[in-house]
Structure formats: C-alpha cells, structure tokens
Amino acid sequence: MRRTRTAVLISGRGSNLAALLAAAREPGYPAEIALVVSNRPDAGGLGHAAGAGVATAIVDHRSHAGKPAFEAALQAVLEAARIELVCLAGFMRLLSEAFVERWRDRMINVHPSLLPSFRGLDTHARAIEAGVRIHGATVHFVRSDVDTGPIIVQGAVPVLSSDTADSLAARVLAVEHRIYPRALALVATGAATVVAEKVVLGAEPEGAEARCLIWPGPA
Ligand code: GAR
C-alpha cells in the first residue's frame, strides 16, 4: 500500500503529533509521518518524533528576516522531504495567503472548538463564558483566514457546570486525539475532497461515524 508522505508542523508539546504517530504505526494506515517540523527548537513534541524515529527539522521563525523568508525555508524542508500533505498540530504561526494557497486542499489543521464558533485563542474559557452546552474540536482544510476552511471531522463534548477551562480543555484534547488521525486518513485516502468549499466524503465505510464523534458516546 502506498502511504501519503505527511509532515506535521508543531510549536509545542505535540500531543496531537503523538496521536498521529501512533495511528501511522498501525498496519494499513494510509499516511506516513515522514517529517516533523517545529518553529521552536525547544518544542516538547520533537521528543515524540525522535522516539518514533521520524525525521525532524527546526525552522525557527526568529532566525528569518520576516514571514516570506520563514515560509521559504519551511517550503524548502517540505519539498526536500517530498511531502504531499501537511498537518498543523498546535503550530502557532499565522501562515500567509501565498503559502496557504500553495498547499490548498493539502494542508489540514486541528482547532479546539466546534468551528465556526470560537476561532482564535482561549477557546475553552470563551465557551464557558458564552454558556454553550456543547463544545469540541474540528479538523479542517486550511484557508488563509485563521481557523476557517472546509470541515473534515468534528468531535463534541458536553460542557459540565463544574468545568474550568482546564478540565474542558482536557476533555476536548482527548477528542482531538481521536478525530485528527481519522481526518488525516480520510484525506490521505482521497475519501475527503473539497467541492464548493465543503468536504464531501466519497467512500464512507464508517457512515456518519467518519465525520463526527460524540464523546463519550452511548454506553
Ligand atoms: C491543541 O489543542 C490544538 O487544537 C491547538 O493547540 C493545541 C496543541 O496541543 N491549536 C490551536 O489552537 C490552533 N488554532 P498539542 O501540541 O499537544 O497538540
């Protein structure tokens, strides 16, 4: 089986990276994590890559004079590794429209909210503040407006009256770890494609389960 050569871009602890690495170890998983790129030399997630024997590259935004130079360096490492798909996993740099367009429909992101609600930062505190009853996470194709783009998979969790931003974040993070590998598999196999800025799932072996996760599900 041919596996899609995938790069994961991180800035921090890399728990979503760890989930993707674990999924990619399974026989039959359609993507290979061929490269992990961090814009921070001290990102904890680099340890997950090393532990899995995956190549890493540091492209430090502070060592480049401006975004065009930073993104040119990023593009160079992706091309050198013959990367076909890019996963943003807690990658905290805003990418230019030119870079995003270059990877159009070949770059996906995980965001800790049910988009289009709560784009941006501090999503869990804002969800509690807004009083929503259901919160969650989204994996989507990347577009140049931050935290927008065709939605591939979402996962939802209840917001409990006892929740703090941290307890809610932990529950959402567990969902991220389940939906991101699923979304990457859908894209890598070509099952998820973009038509008129919406994701269409071709073969749906898992039915509705493939595109949404209510967690915890029925007992
Ligand atoms: C994750 O919760 C991810 O959804 C979020 O950063 C965290 C990274 O954690 N990303 C964003 O907020 C992007 N808009 P991780 O490094 O443990 O995967």
**DSSP strand (E) fraction?**
15-25%
Largest sheet: 8 strands, mixed
| Overall spatial form | globular
For the residues shown, what is the average pLDDT? 94
Structural class: alpha/beta
Question: Count of helices?
Answer: 6
| Element order: H for helix, E for strand | EHEHEHEHEHEEHEEE
Strand order of the largest sheet: 3-2-1-4-5-6-7-10
Which CATH class of the largest domain?
Alpha Beta
CATH architecture of the largest domain: 3-Layer(aba) Sandwich
Structural features, described:
- With 219 residues, the protein is α/β, with parallel strands linked by helices.
- The chain has two domains: 1-103, Rossmann fold, CATH 3.40.50; 110-219, Rossmann fold (3-Layer(aba) Sandwich).
- It is built from six helices and ten strands.
- The chain has an eight-stranded mixed beta sheet with strand order 3-2-1-4-5-6-7-10, with helices on both faces.
- A hairpin with a 2-residue loop joins β8 (192-195) and β9 (198-201).
- It starts with a strand and ends in a 5-residue tail after the last strand.
- The model has no long low-confidence stretch (mean pLDDT 94).
- Glycinamide ribonucleotide binds at residues 10, 12-16, 45, 89-90, 110-112, 147, 173, 176.
